[in-house]
Amino acid sequence: MTISPLLDATGVAKNYGAVAALRNAALSVLPGEVHALMGANGAGKSTLVKILTGAIPASAGRIEVRGRAHRVRSPADARRAGLVPVYQEPSLIPDLDILSNLRLTRTPVEPFQEWVRELGVPDLDLRETARDVPLAIQRVLDLARALAVEPDILLLDEMTAALPANLAERVLDVVRRQSRSGRSVIFISHRFVEIAALCDRATVLRDGETVGVVDIEAGVEERIVELMLGAKVEKARRAPSAAEDGGAPSRSTRIAVRNLAVGTKLRDVSFDLKNGEVAGVVALEGQGQDELFAALAGSVRPSAGTIEVDGEAVRFAHPVEAIEAGIAYVPGDRSEALAMKQSVRENIALPFSAAFRNWGPISRRTEGVKVQSAIERLQIDTRAQREVQRLSGGNQQKVTIARWIAADARTILCFDPTRGIDVGTKQEIYRLLRQLAQQGKSILYYTSELEEVGLVCDRAIVIFGGKVVDILPVEIADEPALTRAAYGLPRDAKAGVHAGAQTGAIAP
Amino acid sequence: MSISTVSGQPASPGRRIRRFMSDYPLVPLIVLLLLLVLVLQTLSPGIVNPRWLGNTVKFAIPLALLAGCQTMVMLTGGIDLSVGTAATMAGFIVATQSVDNPHGVAMAIALIPALVIGFVNGIGVGVFRVHPLIMTLGTSLIGVGCLQVYQRTVISSGTKYPDFLVWLGTGVTWGFPNALVLFIPVAALLIFIQRRTGFGRLLYALGDNERATRLAGVKYWQVILALYMLCSLLAGVVGLLYVGLIKAASLSLAEPLVLPSVAAAVIGGTSIFGGRGGYTGTIVGALILTVLTTLLTILQMPEGARRILFGAIVLLVTAAYLRIIEDR
Fold first, then answer.
1. Does A246 reside within a domain?
2. Which of A359, A365, A397, A413 to mutate to test the interface with B (most CBs of B within 10 A)?
3. % of residues, chain B, pLDDT over 90
4. ipTM for the complex shown
5. How far is residue A324's CA from residue A127's CA, in Å, rounded to a whole number?
6. pLDDT of residue B101
7. I want to staple B205 with a disulfide (CB 3.0 to 4.6 A). Which of A322, A339, A373, B240 is the partner?
């Protein structure tokens, strides 16, 4: 006898004009299981999620909840059916305090507070304005808010992506318990480790279709990757390391940062960024890395310290001054960088028109050549190019980078550019950044995924508590070493711990 | 467990029509316009003739030009309620100044207040970040006040309308209204600015995502200041044209055109939230509104009923049109 599924969606399709975002998706979730939903970017995960939760209507398909056909016309419908989502972006209203946010969704306060404590945030003030709560905590609150209404099906979209390790662990714990009590969880993530540890089955989407449902067991990662990529199965290749790509003998310094401080977060940071290198920046959430990038990009003014570009001290008052010095900023949040309703071409060419002297007629031909070569270089899928918002997340991210390739920026500041995008696109971005470095450009690369340091960077600058605590060459910058450094532990801490375990030999 | 592929199902005719309309948003508007003309002809056979056509175009032009200002501002997510005042001031001043001055000088003087209004709007919105609705409402009221003061100083001198403006406003050559001499180049220029210049591209981008334009190196205040000045200048020119058409300078000369100018832009598919739309749609929108007015006039209804119907139709058309072209 088979258990009847709690949620059963079949033949779900969604068209945007001529573009099919979802063609034939199916998802079946059993009671008490944690079900992973996977797929490369642009495979249709987000679209399917939005349809299931009533955010957008489906063009076709059938959705059954507990065996009965169910029409989800609005998020409220989905809630009534017991399906509650936690989206990738924080959903608290920034200008209301937390209590008012709870009232807005009629969330019972007591269970909410219990869940918040459960999730590892002991001292939450309900009177605090949501805007002032750190991003990572906001995510936890979103989750607690969803849990407080005791949903039958909890839908988590990249829940752990923006969380520091300790909070992520708590979240996974809670998800496990949720499933033990007979409730189901739909779990969307790019992290295999989490999926292997947490999920029972996985549904894999590719190009808007469900291409397989697999049981999670040892070695299933290969199978899932195969399904996700379809024909183009390709082992993740290591980008050439610094040693391999020649290691130019005397690289000149492009940007010299000395004792830089911004506000209260970034306190004292000094480092050099050289021509022809990719320098990684590694830090836990909120250690001042946002402020560092904003200062280098000209978005905020430093409160102390100096920035030198090619040996000359600069004080940027507006991003345009950084751009004129050849420094471009690619923010982690794509919605910060893109004009979503405009075309791919207009987005890439946007910096060309920025200066007053370039307000005149646009030379379609020269612009076309530059834009086209950038599109080709990044292999942007331009089928849906009339509006950037219809591109997949990975392609959108490529557009944000293509803009500065077309503008020929000498330095690119990449802030976590691969967050929430698929494996294939990540590989392409790594390769591109290495190429740029080989051509003598310099790249500052903040990443929240430590394994990327080994794939892309020549060095890793580790920031903790607003200060540079270590600069590791890529050879020794493996994940354990970076993690230790990111928590502010000294480089030889491992040896120390070992020694300590064998009763108290103190390093000389 | 996975479902076999049923991809590439043929689109139904309804879907195809919607897709077509979403790709060519101008088509449904033109169809609607022709439909309205057809209704007009049915209700009152023989009314649609070259003379009627010329008249309709003549009255649609000031509205279309003012809606052109509105379209540009709306692309950035703003709105300009002071266009009526800028136009009224220009019209009123040219009529009173022409008595003592050469007509060219009078026209130049008449455009100065418009530029000042645009400058103040631009500084307020661009530098001090006042909401465009409030900013332009404020300058509009101030402008009207100034005009009342000005009126007292010229109350005895009477009015005079430069021949050129009368020719432009009311004249007809070979069946075409002379106002087309002004309208066609201006419309072409506006469309060119929107589609093919860096400035135009910035308007769309600003309305779409201001933060993104900042990161791309755009200085917000520069664009906004240029935009509002350009917009007010154009409104001033419309005022000159309109006073030539109406030949009765008053303190509320162009005021009745302000809200229809917003309506024309919205009916034409320009999003009031910015980032989407264009002037071609607005032109058709202005024509639709003008024909609609004629239609309601010949229906011989009481004024109240006519207004109710006008409002309802504008709402209906806008809602239906947005549904068609958004294609969610």
1. no
2. A359
3. 56
4. 0.84
5. 44
6. 87
7. A339
A65 found inside a domain: yes
Point out the least confidently predicted range of A21-30, A139-148, A374-383, B126-135.
Answer: A374-383
Contact A346, B204 (CB under 8 A): yes
Query: Do A102 and A206 fall into the same domain?
Result: yes
What's the confidence (pLDDT) of residue A243? 42
What whole-number distance in Å separates Cα of residue B269 and Cα of residue B26? 9
Counted domains in chain A: 2
DSSP string, A408-453: T-SEEEEESTTTT--HHHHHHHHHHHHHHHHTT-EEEEE-S-THHH
Rounded distance, CA A202 to CA B230, Å?
A: 58
CATH number at residue A144: 3.40.50.300
Q: How far is CA B307 from CA B8, B293, B296, B328, in A?
A: 48, 9, 9, 32
pLDDT tens sequence across B1-53: 333 333 444 557 777 777 777 777 888 889 989 999 999 999 888 888 888 89
In this complex, is the C-beta atom of A403 within 8 Å of any C-beta atom belonging to chain B? yes
- Position B191 scores a pLDDT of 96
Is there a contact between B327 and A17 if contact means CB atoms under 8 Å apart?
Answer: yes
Q: CB–CB of B226 and A359 under 8 A?
A: yes
pLDDT in tens, A311-342: 999 999 999 999 999 999 999 888 889 999 89
Shared-domain flag, residues A220 and A263: no
How close B2 gets to chain A, by Cα (Å)? 5
- Residue A239 binned pLDDT confidence (cut-offs 50, 70, 90): very low
A33 vs B: CB within 8 A: no
* Whole-number pLDDT of residue A386: 78
Entry pTM: 0.75
CA separation for the pair B85, B179 (Å, rounded): 21
Which strands form A34-39's sheet, in the order they lie side by side?
A68-69, A60-65, A7-16, A19-29, A209-215, A201-206, A34-39, A184-188, A153-157, A83-86
H or E element that contains B313: helix B303-326
Q: In the prediction, which pLDDT does A496 show?
A: 38
- B50-326 has which fold? ABC transporter involved in vitamin B12 uptake, BtuC (1.10.3470)
Per-window interface: A 200-229 vs B, CB < 8 A = 209-213
> Is residue A506 domain-resident?
no
CA distance A326 to chain B (A): 11
**pLDDT-derived band of residue A161, with 50, 70 and 90 as boundaries?**
low
* Residue A236 within any structural domain of the chain: no
Contact A44, A67 (CB under 8 A): no
- DSSP string covering A177-189: HHHHTT-EEEEE-
| Domain identity same for A206 and A263 | no
* Residue range B97-121, pLDDT digits in tens: 988 888 889 999 999 999 999 999 9
> Coil, strand or helix: which one is A256?
strand
Scanning A93-152 for CB atoms below 8 A from B yields none
Q: Any idea where the domains of chain B sit in the sequence? A: 50-326
Q: Does residue A275 share a domain with residue A216? A: no
CB contact under 8 A, A299 and B218: no
Structural domain boundaries, residue A165 = 7-229
